[in-house]
Amino acid sequence: MATYHPSGHMQLPRADAIRSRLIDTFSLIEHLQGLSQAVPRHTIREILDSSRQKKLMLGDQHQLVRFSIKPRHVERITHAQRLMSTLRVRCSERPPLSLWAGWVLERILSCHLFFFNFYFLLENFIIFLIFLNTVVLMVEIELLESANTQLEPLKLTLEVAAWFILLIFILEILLMWLSSFFLFWKNAWNVFDFVVTVLSLIPEIVVLAGVTSKPVWLQLLRICRVLRSLKLFARFHQVRVIILALVRALKSMTFLLMLLLIFFYIFAVAGVYFFENYTRSTRQDLEYHEFFSDLLNSIVTVFILFTLDHWYALLQDTWKVPEVSRTFSSIYVILWLLLGSIIFRNIIVAMMVTNFQNIRNELNEEMTHLEVQHKADIFKRQIIQRRQNLIPEAQRSSISKLDARLGVTFHETDAIQSHECAAVDKRAERKRRKDASQQGRPSDLTEASQQESKQSATRKGSKASKSRTKSLSKRRKSTSSFSSSSSSFSSCSSVSSSRYCDLIGKQKVSSIFKSMVVAFFVYCKSGFLVLHIFSFSPSRIVFHPCFLRQLDWETHVHQNLPGLMDMDQDERVVWPRDSLFRYFELLEKLQYNLEERKQLQEFAVRALMNFEDK
Amino acid sequence: MAAALGTRGATRRWFAALRGRSQSLAAMAFGFMSRVALQAEKMNHHPEWFNVYNKVSELIFVSIYSSEFCMKLYVDPISYWKDGYNLLDVVIIIIIFIPYSLRKIKGKHYPYLNIADGVQSLRILKLITYSRGIRTLITAMGQTAYTVASVLILFFVLMYIFAILGFCLFGLPEGGDMNNWGNLALAFFTLFSLATVDGWTDLQEQLDARNLILSRSFTIIFILLASFVFLSMFVGVMIIHTEDSIKKFERELMLERRMNLMEEKQVILKRQQEEVSKLMQTQKDLDHKSFTELVEKFKKTLRHTDPMVLDDFGTSLPFIDIYLSTLDNQDATIHKLQELYYEIVHVLSLMLEDLPQKKQSKSSEKVDEK
């Protein structure tokens, strides 16, 4: 490579960042220190291909194979899909029972209810059953006391229906266990379901076992049947969201509740001592005599005071006993009212409000995130279109450069058009696009940077023709080499550099890149200003639309670049290794060249400014 | 002097170690607290070993806490008083010693002894120091204390006005309700009962039974003002302040986290740069190579058929698109500038051609003058 290397007399942080990125990507440090990393040379497809595999095996018997897998951004993988890809399932003759259980659950028993419409109820079997259970219970309770013998068959049918529904609930739980036992317990809603069902089962079993003597169990039985309606909570999605929001709000208030409990304790114990005389008094007309007798009663009394119920009556009752000092008792009650029921209750309300607002903001953030992604997507397509349009624009302004560019742009527009047409979000097509446009990119870059360096060195346009021919020949060579090799790749392998340094370097460099792009806009703007001051030629009018669009471009990119950078990067680019190295090198040189051009420009401006009218 | 400083440092370090084992101390505090709870059960005549257990545990805990206080004071006598939680410790120790001192000073049958015993329950506040969550909560709540205090003062002023009004209207000895409005304190209590709308219908009944004028409007106006307006305003003010303090707290947390992350990144980047420069130094000492020559050999091993898959922004296609577009714009600008410069130069050269003639004539004039 040429020796155009400033060797440190111009310190550019951007160039340094690019170099450090280069070092990171190729892990040059370890290489130069003598430890060469394993370089991914083959892809999985090559290994699976039998002919290539033979060649590989013949090469070196003791090669180590290291698979580096990049996590892919895929949709949710269901448990059934995972099960289907395990070796055990694929090699067995019959599909396992858990798959069938999962299918039954999926299709028949647990669809989501979206409209509260009777016809839809039939489709959502379990929800329908829960409602039926509730109705049966209501009717049963009404008929419980009537001794009407004509209603005996009705009672019998109700009983049978209730038992039938219970059996179906138990069956559903058994199916879920069959499908995957361990996952059942991980989901909190399933555990809730299970607990409720078991609770409602116990009294029935007890009754069946014959312990009919105690009426307590019959009452429990009826209560637990009602509990089955609670299963409804797990079914509706909206109810789940509300309950989850409540649980989160409560979680963040744990310390507040702990503090409240501490205060409860303080006032309860103090109350026992303060009203000792009141408890020991032998007067007969005290209504609230037992209220401060021991710790448990005292806690209940403190809670009663917390809810502001009959506190003045209690206070006046304590005043009846002369030994109780009025000041201390009233201080106690008033202090507790102020602290507990007025201040604390309102703090709890405030915390709840804040938490619900936070939850709503988080949900909004997700929405805005999706929106930003969408905008970034649109911006990307606009860039591609702009590239297509801008190139015929540049034709009008500078002809000498354009002949060179035209040759490249033909190739590029082909690439870009294929780039454009394949804007469907399918990965394979995207890869093809990348590979095709890959051919255009580096050659353009090499040509542009070469032009830059040439241009900054000399300020005549005559050499452009020389560079044009050179670049054309180079382009032909490079494109031929690219087309041959880059078409056969798939992005299954990945770089084996340490992810950590990658991430750090990447972020810093990407921020540097962003600042690079931004800085150039400022430069463009200054160029525009200089032109405005020294505009002699009438062709200024022709230039204006160009400049206006330039401003629009600048602000446009300004607004959209952060969104683009924060986009979920699930696109990956396949670079041939030496092209990537060359890309980094050229980018670094480009920075130096641009810096020099800027300095020359400033020099010219200063020289022009020094003109005086003499 | 040096020995004193040394012991101070030693105690300081010992305290730091103790703080780390906060769970054991929390267990101790819990034991302390439960002892006070059990004390409340003293009414019911527990067996003798229970009382012995109570006394022994109280002795142990009191001795531990007072020795902790003394040592902390010894370590940092001046800045000890600046920390709020240390002040809380001091207050609790004072509270612990009140019953003993009262018993000693005033004798065993002082009627307010049970008050002193009741105040012992405040010992549990020592638990707060050991829990970081409660501490942050109290800090957050403390910022709302000013607003709360001002609202309460306003409330008190309102009650004062209405108490005096009520006393004059309803508390006069003849035909008035002496039970509830007889003196200022009673009037305050009545008004507080109205404000918390608890049992106010009974109070109103008594006023109605004596046929006092304006009693109903008085009561209703006061209930509207105090209960509906003031207490709701209280809620609103607390909501706003809680939101503010929570937001500030979260922002500080995020800032702290980001600062830490940035520092870590800087450290790693610096380390990498140092390594590279070190490498280059060693190589330079050997063969006077530059960076490009260093990697020349590495470059030769790069094959075109090796794929590298990258997904960072700097090597992605959108970035290249944007960058090249901006470079194109720049080139266009520079090209136009160049053309303009050529024009300038051309015009200037034309001017220069005209100038020498004028200059010659001018200089000749000057010579003529001279």
UniProtKB/TrEMBL annotation, chain A:
GO terms for cellular component: CatSper complex. Residues 421-495 are annotated as: Disordered. The chain crosses the membrane at residues 125-144, 156-185, 191-211, 256-275, 295-313, 333-353, 516-536. The keyword RNA-binding does not apply. It comes from Bos mutus (wild yak). This is Cation channel sperm-associated protein 2. Residues 120-362 form the Ion transport domain. It is a multi-pass membrane protein. Residues 479-495 have a biased composition (Low complexity). One of its GO terms (molecular function) is calcium-activated cation channel activity. Belongs to the cation channel sperm-associated (TC 1.A.1.19) family. InterPro entries: CatSper2, Ion_trans_dom, Volt_channel_dom_sf. It catalyses: Ca(2+)(in) = Ca(2+)(out). SUPFAM superfamilies: Voltage-gated potassium channels (SSF81324). The lineage of its organism: Eukaryota, Metazoa, Chordata, Craniata, Vertebrata. Signal peptide: none annotated. Residues 460-478 have a biased composition (Basic residues). One of its GO terms (biological process) is flagellated sperm motility.
TrEMBL record, chain B:
GO terms for biological process: flagellated sperm motility; sodium ion transport; sperm capacitation; tetrahydrobiopterin biosynthetic process. It comes from the Eukaryota. SUPFAM superfamilies: Voltage-gated potassium channels (SSF81324). Residues 48-239 form the Ion transport domain. One of its GO terms (cellular component) is CatSper complex. It holds the Pfam family Ion_trans. Residues 262-289 form a coiled coil. The chain crosses the membrane at residues 84-102, 145-172, 178-197, 218-240. Keywords: Coiled coil, Membrane, Transmembrane, Transmembrane helix. It is found in: Membrane. It is a multi-pass membrane protein. The keyword Membrane applies. One of its GO terms (molecular function) is voltage-gated calcium channel activity. Its main location: membrane. This is Ion transport domain-containing protein. It comes from Bos mutus. The lineage of its organism: Eukaryota, Metazoa, Chordata, Craniata, Vertebrata.
